[in-house]
Specification:
The structure holds 2 protein chains of 2 kinds. Chain A is mainly α. Chain A has 11 helices and no strands. Helix content of chain A is 67%, strand content 0%. Classes of the chains: A mainly alpha, B alpha+beta. Chains A and B meet through helix 2 and helix 6 of A and strand 2 and helix 1 of B.
């Protein structure tokens, strides 16, 4: 694998996380539990879409075949998407949305803090722009985890269920393959081993403060690095890609 | 009016630039100080409107009674000498 191929795959993976989570969160537009939360979550969605745009545009540049960020976002098949499985999990109830946001944003905070030091200048620049947004996403998710976990018995139970349900998708966040290995040698990619330990530590702190139990080690789902997804991604894509599929090259 | 069941009501004031006054932007619901700031940020500063936010619980606002309007506001209205309009402005003086 050339460095170029590896950099393309690496960037697409990051871009897909942002793209799919942005779409997931945008589904909550007009469906938030209260108006304030509706806007808070759709603000996060907009941050994600902005990050996706920057990353997918960069991926298109690396590939050098004259594609746009939109081509990459809207014209791939499911098997060619590389977002983490955790990202595509449904919003379900508010507790599930928050648990997913907590797991993702704590991971992203640690990850993008390191990516800021990448030797790839574009990735480093995107990281330093996005880290400010991630800090806010993380604060929002932590605050709600504390409120729901340490709230009423109903909110506590729902939050615990959400944490338990999503736990099996968290192992995949720290998987590395030959793409990571190659780019780590070049000082471009982030080493996920120290991040894994830190993530567990941080999540443990938040969950205990929220009077929630850390799920026991369980079988961890895997597959997204090879484009193998849960059934949820297909549903997202069918909605997200509808317009470009029905009216190719449609513009504003 | 239906009873408001969505957390406490807060008033939001936004400062658009350092040095300028905080201007009332609207209200939000929140359960604590931190959430109030976050919700105010998410609702009223989405397009670069502000650089600083104040929030305060609406219940702490003391408002004048509309029934007292005659007593409170009319007397200041009919005396032209209350308005500083009899001075010649120095040339070049701004913001007076």
């Amino acid at each position: 694998m050339t460095t170029k191929d590896a950099a393309y795959t690496y960037t697409i993976r990051l871009g897909d996380d942002a793209l799919i989570l942005g779409h997931r969160l945008s589904e909550l537009c007009s469906r938030g539990p209260i108006l304030e939360e509706d806007l808070a979550l759709t603000n996060v969605a907009l941050d994600m879409i902005g990050r996706a745009q920057a990353l997918l545009k960069y991926a298109a540049d690396i590939e050098g075949k004259g594609k746009t960020d939109d081509d990459i976002a809207y014209r791939r098949a499911e098997i060619n998407y590389y977002n983490h499985l955790l990202i595509e999990q449904p919003n379900a109830d508010f507790a599930h949305t928050i648990a997913r946001q907590l797991f993702v944003s704590v991971f992203e905070f640690l990850f993008y803090t390191e990516l800021e030091k990448s030797r790839d200048e574009t990735l480093a620049a995107i990281a330093s722009k996005t880290i400010k947004e991630i800090k806010y996403h993380m604060q929002h998710a932590i605050d709600w985890t504390l409120r729901l976990g340490d709230g009423t018995s109903e909110s506590h139970n729902r939050m615990q269920t959400a944490v338990n349900d999503l736990w099996m998708y968290t192992g995949e966040l720290f998987e590395m393959d030959e793409v990571d290995a190659q780019l780590m040698r070049d000082g471009i990619a982030v080493d996920l081993i120290p991040i894994k330990a830190q993530w567990h530590n941080d999540i443990k702190t938040v969950l205990s403060k929220a009077t929630l139990l850390i799920p026991e080690d369980t079988y961890m789902q895997t597959g997204s690095k090879k484009g193998i997804h849960t059934e949820n991604l297909g549903h997202i894509l069918s909605e997200m890609q509808y317009l470009q599929r029905a009216y190719p090259d449609a513009v504003w | 009016m239906a009873t408001d069941t969505q957390l406490d009501l807060w008033e939001v004031f936004i400062q658009s630039k350092s040095g300028l006054p905080y201007i009332h932007a609207g209200s939000i619901h929140a359960s604590d100080n931190k959430m109030a700031i976050q919700n105010a940020r998410d609702i009223y500063t989405r397009r670069g409107e502000g650089t600083s936010i104040w929030v305060l619980p609406s219940k702490h606002i003391v408002a004048s009674n509309p029934d007292d309007n005659d007593m409170l506001f009319d007397p200041s209205n009919d005396k032209v000498y209350r308005h500083p309009t009899f001075y010649v402005m120095p040339e070049g003086a701004k913001n007076i």
